[in-house]
Amino acid sequence: MNSELIEHVMFVQQIPPFDILPKQVLQELTKNITITYVTAGQVLTDNDELQDTILLIKKGILVKRTCINNETSTIEKYGEGDLCRQLILNNNSTLVVEEDALVYCLKLDDILSAVDEYPSVIQFLTASHETRLKQTIISQHATEINASPLNNTLIGDLISKQAATILQDETVQQAAEKMTRLGYSSLVVLKQENSIAIEDLGIVTDRDIRVRCVAEGLPYNTKVSEIMTKDLYSIDANSIAFDGLIMMMDKNIHHLLVTKNSQLHGVITITDLMHKEAQNAAHLISVIRRAKTVDELVKVGVMLPDVQLKMTKLGIAGLQIGKSISALSKALTVRLIELGQEELGQAPVPFAWFSAGSLARQEQLAYSDQDNGLIISDKALPEHFDWFKKLANFVCDGLNLCGFVYCPGNVMASNIKWRQTQKVWLDYFRAWIDTPSPQALLNSSIFFDLSFVYGEVSLISDIKKYVLSKTTKSTLFLAHLSKNMQAHRPPLGFIRDFVLIQSGDNKSTMDLKHNAIAPIVDLARIYALALGIEETCTIGRLQKVAEMKTGNSVVSRSSALSLIDAFEFLVQLKLGLYLKKSLAGLPVNNYLSPGDISRLERTYLKDAFKVIKTLQDARQAVL
What we know:
Mean pLDDT: 85
Low-confidence stretches: none
Shape: globular
Oligomer: single chain
């Protein structure tokens, strides 16, 4: 291979998606490269030779512009190392050389011929930003399935107790009595005592007794052999647990015999396997509910970062992790309220404790601060408020000890401003909507994500209904909320890389929380308030928008679905960032350096930012 071809290969293999191709494919691909030098001011769209061509920018700057209603605007700029898909330009778009450029040109037909065995490369080059994000999320979901905890567990390890047995000549009544006494949902039926070869076994379940005996009117002294299931399915104890789950789902059975050396070892149920999928969260919630002291809750709370990291390592979806951590946080709050009442006595009047922010959206992660408040019945007397002050301090102090630190903005029930009667809260929301001052808009971003935790649910549901009845009609409030949203813009640079923080401890990074995830949360909230959607979580809101009938003027179905994909990708990226920082012994925060992720991830990140920016601009345009 000559030196010129080597140089071409070295350049092309740095640019996604070509970076995944083997060297021999790259060599074949680069044989057909045309190198073009273009001068500033030249319009490449008018060049027939460059139609249906992929352009790789070696040096210089190209600009994609669009013209709508005689107004020209810049869509995107391409600099050194960028890829421009010239083939997808439409009649309203032009590609103009802004700075003298050296461009590598590859015909689409030549690419397809060289990479026909790499469909992901073809899809990357021809798909829109939205479609590429969708494919990324599909891939992540596939990884999540492959990373199931059941793939790392032998089914024999899930057998905690021996199978209970019964002889085939014993009666249904004897079977029911034994199952009740042992707390089992099934019994293995033996032909004779100690005959545990699989071919000699049957099984009787509580469902068999209901359906095959009681429902049929059979006497209780019917032999179990008459209602048992024969021709059982079994799996070896050394098999992967996930294979057992697949077998049970495929055969539509709820009990599976587990064997060791061809002999009965135990019985596994589909419920056992499904519980294993989320055993950490389920187990910890059980521990939380049994806790007798705050110290016991603290021991659980300090475990949550490790639980989150373990789930991330296993490839569990970021949104599912958020739901698990949120469930644990809510359980801690409920138990703290219960312990507080054990210490202080029962509440003098009804109340409702609510969560706000990420916990209310079921998107809370470990390392988060707390956002909460108290709504007290209007029946409260002045002397009652001291009790609620003590409860609020007890719970907020407990959450802080459990790892959910005090809110820097003091948005907690321990702050008297956020510990008020229902009437006062209604006045708050009325003022925020009718007079959308900067502080009102800041409060809206917190308290318009509100979720019931404990107490009298009607105190919260009444407020939420009132809020939506006003926001759906208040164009002024929604306009201010949309304008305020522009403070959270994705750090998307026009040329190649991102707009990064210029100074300070986080220099040369971007803030994933405030400039990537928050804009989607803001958009989803605005859509929900405009359309009267009661859902609180970001994905739920966007799904409701997407499900609405054609004619929704707030946002299109396809745009809502694209935001869902962008949100899933960014949450997963954020969790990966937390994992890397934790393993490296660094402080866990939301600041990402582009150099810490792959070129392909950077491309997908830009895709997500473009989706967000497009919808932010569209929302701003309707003001």
